Amino acid sequence: MTAETLLSLRGLTVRFRLPHGETVAVDGIDLDLAAGEVLGIVGESGSGKSQVLYSLMGLLAANGRAGGQALFEGVDLLSLSRRQLDTLRGQHISMIFQDPMTSLNPYRRVGDQIAEGLIVHEGLSRSAAQAEAVRMLDRVRIPDASNRARRFPHEFSGGMRQRVMIAMALLTRPKLLLADEPTTALDVTIQAQVLDLMAELARETGTAIILVTHDLGVVARLCGRVAVLYGGRVMEEAGAQALFSTPAHPYTRGLLDAMPRLEQALTPRLGTIPGTPRSGGGDVIGCPFAPRCTERIARCTTERPAFLERSHLGGTRSAACHLIPEVAE
Amino acid sequence: MLRFVGKRLWNGSLTLFALVTLTFFVMRLAPGGPFSRNRKISPEVQANIEAAFHLDEPIWQQFGRFVWGLLHLDLGPSTRFRDYSVGDIIASGLPYSLTIGAWAVLLAAFVGIALGIAGAMRRNGFTDYAAGTVGVIGIAIPIFVIGPVLQVIFAVKLQWLPVGSWNDGWRSLVLPVVVLALPNIAYISRLTRASMIETMRENYVRTAVAKGIGPTRTLMGHTLEGALIPVIAYLGPATAAIITGSILIETIFALPGIGRHFVDAALNRDYPLVMGITLLYGALLILFNIVTDLIRAWIDPRLRNAH
Ligand SMILES: Nc1ncnc2c1ncn2[C@@H]1O[C@H](COP(=O)(O)OP(=O)(O)OP(=O)(O)O)[C@@H](O)[C@H]1O
Ligand code: SF4
Ligand SMILES: [Mg+2]
To answer: For B287-305, what is the mean pLDDT?
Structure first.
């Protein structure tokens, strides 16, 4: 953990109580994020991407519990009371959700909803906060912002609503923005535009981003580093360029092989790998990918491959696979 | 907004006219008239009576006369209480029913909503169980059991409140209002609780929580509006029903409201009185539905712009 480390996850777990037993959605994740950095998280549906973000924001469902540590500027988010967390979330940590159509309150004016955070966190007067909200709407390129601020969400298109969410999230100049598939629900033609806008504004405010996405093209364009999640664990983590050009983990390689060639598809998405993705379920003894892995060895089902620095093509790579040799100490 | 109100009022008037027509013809077509007794009366007397009440005219003329009267708020004479008009009878009973009903609605709405919110916020906590118990009691035990039980406790044993009648100022109101409110408290608290729990799962409430604005602001500014919409939809028609009198309450507590007149009138085939009370109830129902619609449109901007 270096001096400028903003967020540091250590053994982060998310478990859900069920009528019969328990399910493990996030199974011991270690990740670091530097101030201003953009980290991508990719993985199939059910791999635990959303739950990682929810656990940081205190948004887990009532039957869920987070374990391990999530140090934000040295403070463990998981140990905070709701009241203490409220001094951070919405101000220093913001979140943008997947579905812009339902994420705004249909009964309240858009400007009021944006301004609310400033009133609460920075003690601004209503009118001053409103003025800031209009300024921010203008920056996310909502035309005629001062009039638009007095409108209700149903009078906005999906893309405009997500830009409203971006305005709301970045208004307090947070240090960390958690974006959970922010454009998946939007029309393909405007996805890139909205994402670029988000990244551009975050750069201006020095905000670090964790970007959860299915879209490998987005990762390649926006993210400095990528973590690949499977079955609630990080399989591999590397700089985006390195991950795409020299994937080390069998699961990452599978994902990239299954990806349609760039020239064939406008927006390359995660392809499909044979077999059913693991999601939830109880504790796993070995490697969660073992049932689908074509390179499986005997050890894979009996011993958990640790997520650590391993040797790969003469360099090192953080990965969790028995086939990749550990770096000798 | 003005157009919205106008449209609702116009629709309401049409519904009311349909109701007037329907009540009138159902009454007239029902077998047996107010003066068909087993006791034989001479044909002349019969004819005189029918002429006095215009029962000898063609039915369309009777209907026209009835509607014309209604437009002047004249509901005609009662066939049973000869010297009183239907309007007089309703006017004498309505204030009692209205007073008790209005307090009962206020009490039920206030307590029911508060219990529902508290239960939803602390699910399975003490308040939740307490509210749940009140709910079961309020719904399962009928008024004619709870009423006398409370009379015995508070009037006979403790002597804090009168057993019945209307001679003791606000103290006469307490028991009837509470008993009338109880089943509604039960229903409203359950409705509010369920609706709150559903709304708390909405994505926009999650957004509010993520903004770190705190539980109170999240509840008042985000959860409550949406959660109250079904409660308001229930309260509108319920209010119309409650303030037009409850025969049970009025009998148990010996109150001179219109609920009892209605049953008397039905038993005695007092057509004009039955129609008068039915129309009053119908008109109030339509009115409160309009009010409900307006409140819902005031909360939900999507309803305002529709049409
Ligand atoms: N309240 C809950 N109770 C039990 N299990 C849950 C609950 N919420 C989520 N899960 C489980 O947690 C696992 C991870 O879910 P998560 O939402 O993080 O997936 P994801 O990677 O975000 O997928 P997607 O790409 O579909 O959004 C899933 O298997 C899901 O079934
Ligand atoms: S640990 Fe074994 S099963 Fe898991 S990815 Fe590596 S080779 Fe495949
Ligand atoms: Mg998700």
So the answer is: 89
**Closest-approaching ligand to the CA atom of A55:** 1
Q: Is A302 an 8 Å CB contact of chain B?
A: no
Q: What is the pLDDT of residue B306?
A: 58
Q: Give the strand pairing for A64-72 and A5-17.
A: antiparallel
Per the structure, the complete domain to which residue A184 belongs is given by 5-92+173-271
Do the chains contact at B211 and A90, CB–CB below 8 Å? yes
Distance in Å, CA B168 to ligand 1 centroid:
63
Dihedral, A93, A96, A97, A100 alpha carbons, nearest 10: 150
CA B96 to chain centroid, in Å, comes to 13
Residue A226 has pLDDT above 70, yes or no: yes
Is B210 within 8 Å of A89 when comparing Cβ atoms? yes
Nearest-10 Cα torsion for A203, A98, A165, B117: -140
ipTM of this predicted complex? Answer: 0.90
How many Cβ pairs within 8 Å bridge chains A and B? 73
pLDDT bucket at A185, cuts 50 / 70 / 90 = confident
Let me know if residue A111 belongs to a domain: yes
Mark yes or no for CB contact A104/B212 under 8 Å: no
Q: Which of A255, A292, A312, A321 to mutate to test the pocket of ligand 2 (most atoms within 8 A of CB)?
A: A321
Q: Whose CA is nearest to atom 6 of ligand 2?
A: A321
Mutate to test the interface with B, among A88, A93, A103, A126 (most CBs of B within 10 A): A103
- Chain B residues whose beta carbon lies within 8 Å of the beta carbon of residue A82: 215
pLDDT tens digits, A73-122: 999 999 999 999 999 999 999 999 999 889 999 999 999 999 999 999 99
| Domain B98-260 = CATH 1.10.10.10 | no
Chain B: closest CA distance from residue A89 (Å): 5
- Does the Cβ of A290 fall within 6 Å of ligand 2? yes
With a Cβ cut-off of 6 Å, ligand 1 is lined by: A 16, 23, 25, 43, 45-51, 61, 63-64, 279-280
Please write the tens of the pLDDT for every residue from A2-35. Answer: 558 999 999 999 999 999 889 999 999 999 999 9
A86, A156, A161, A176: which to substitute to probe chain B, counting the most B Cβ within 10 Å? A86
Residue pair B257/B177 in contact (Cβ under 8 Å)? The answer is no
pTM of the model: 0.86
Going by C-beta distance under 8 Å and a sequence separation of 6 or more, which residues neighbour residue B101?
B180, B239, B242, B243, B244, B245, B246
User: Is there a domain that residue A310 lies in?
Assistant: no
| Dihedral (Cα; A184, A189, A192, A194), 10-degree rounding | -80
Strand A75-76 with A64-72, pairing: antiparallel
Q: Where are the beta strands (DSSP E) in A98-232?
A: 176-180, 208-212, 225-230
Domain boundary among A114, A136, A171: A171
- Same-domain pairing of A82 and A184: yes
**Together in a domain, A179 and A262:** yes
A30 and A112 inside one domain: no
CA-based nearest residue to B101, from B260, B229, B250, B242:
B242
